[in-house]
UniProtKB/TrEMBL annotation:
Keywords of the record: Capsid protein, Sporulation, Virion
Any single Pfam family the record assigns to this protein: Coat_F
Chief location bin: other
Top-rank taxon, per record: Bacteria
Record protein name field: Spore coat protein F
Compartments in which it is found: Spore coat
Family note: Belongs to the CotF family.
Amino acid sequence: MSLEERKTLAWHETLEIHELVAAQSTGLMKLKKSIGKMNDAELRRIYKQAIGDTELNLNELIRFYPSAPSVSEREESEREDTGFYAGELLMFSKTLVRTYAGAITETATPVLRKTLINQLLRSIHCHERIFNYMHKKGLYPAYDLEALLNHDLQNAKKALEMK
């Protein structure tokens, strides 16, 4: 069966799409909030292009959501700023973990390697704390795929509709 004929995405690719949509929705909101502060015309043009590219990415990715594996139904409650800020910290900590892991593999100096490992561990603990907070508050339904994807769609829609 070809990819075009497949009606359901695999769980792992659905979760990767979730990560991309969640990160880009938050990023798009931040870009749209920041562009009005840009005095430099060239930087403003770059921001506009980044906004347009991110909107295109989101619109392309959310088209795959109807093909996500089916799970039990659940209403997703309205998210307030707390969810946005918590999600921003979650993405920041996740990015740091990935960045530190890559940097460690490029490090030859033992004292620098030890420093980076300690900083990686702090980043991992930060990620754990914010994830646990979000999960406890119902802001990240990690074990409910349908709710997770519905939340992504709400955030993507909100980001796309922002002026």
